Every structure is written in structure tokens, then in C-alpha cells.
Amino acid sequence: MQERRTYIRYKIEGTVNLSMGEGASGSIQADLVDICSRGFSAYAHEAIAVGAEVDFELSVKSWGKPIAGRGIVKYVKEEKRMDTGVFRVGINFIDTDQSAIGCIIRQIVEDICARVKKKHSKGT
Question: Which domains does the chain have, with CATH numbers?
């Protein structure tokens, strides 16, 4: 199957708190799956309506402070993960600190390059 995505997704460790905006009670805690310059995906234990606008706070292990923003839910897909049902939720950024997102992506790419370089240096 041909890749239809425009932007490269990078696996990422961390969590995200999702709030449904003004008037909504509570928030949903989810585990980050991947990130790109336009959005992220996460595993949540609750479904969220496609098209819903959400406020989020990303907490990434490699980044010192949370990144807040606003996004729109682009897809929700129910999946099995470790023998339990979860929802993979894809969210596009509407408003966030793009420079912080760019720095996180650069960190991920640098880590990938360092691992590849280390692997190749062991092989020669």
C-alpha cells in the first residue's frame, strides 16, 4: 500500500492531556504515538468526535516543559493494544508553539542519526 501521508511521522514517548474546550468537564489523558510538524496521534481510552476542537498539553520525555495548544480531531480508530481496546486519535495543530514542535522533531531526528551512526561504526 502506498503511503498517503504528506509529512513524516516520528515515534515519540510522552503523554497528552486533551480537553474538549469551554464548558466541557474533565480531560482525557492519552499516550503519544507519533508527531509531525502538522499534528500528532495518541492512544486514548475514550473516543472523541471527529471534527471536535480540543485543547491539549503535550508532555514529551525529551522536552523539559509541557507544550500547550489547540487542535482538531481528524480521525479516530478503535484498536487493540495489550489485550485492551483503545482509540487511536489523530489531531492536527490549529494553534501551538511551532518552534517547540520543530525542536522536538529535530531532537528525534538527531537521536535516529546517532543510533544509525553507532550501528554502522560497530559493523565496520
Answer: 10-123 (2.40.10.220)
Q: What is the pLDDT of residue 21?
A: 66
Q: CA 83, CA 32: separation in Å to the nearest integer? A: 18
Q: Residue type at 10?
A: Y
Contact 56, 69 (CB under 8 A): yes
Residues 6+ apart with CB under 8 A from 70: 53, 54, 55, 56, 93, 94, 95, 96
pTM: 0.84
Q: Cα dist. 105→5, 24, 89 in Å?
A: 17, 31, 20
pLDDT by residue (tens digit) across 64-105? 899 999 999 999 999 877 777 899 999 999 999 999 999 999
CB atoms within 10 A of CB 45: 13
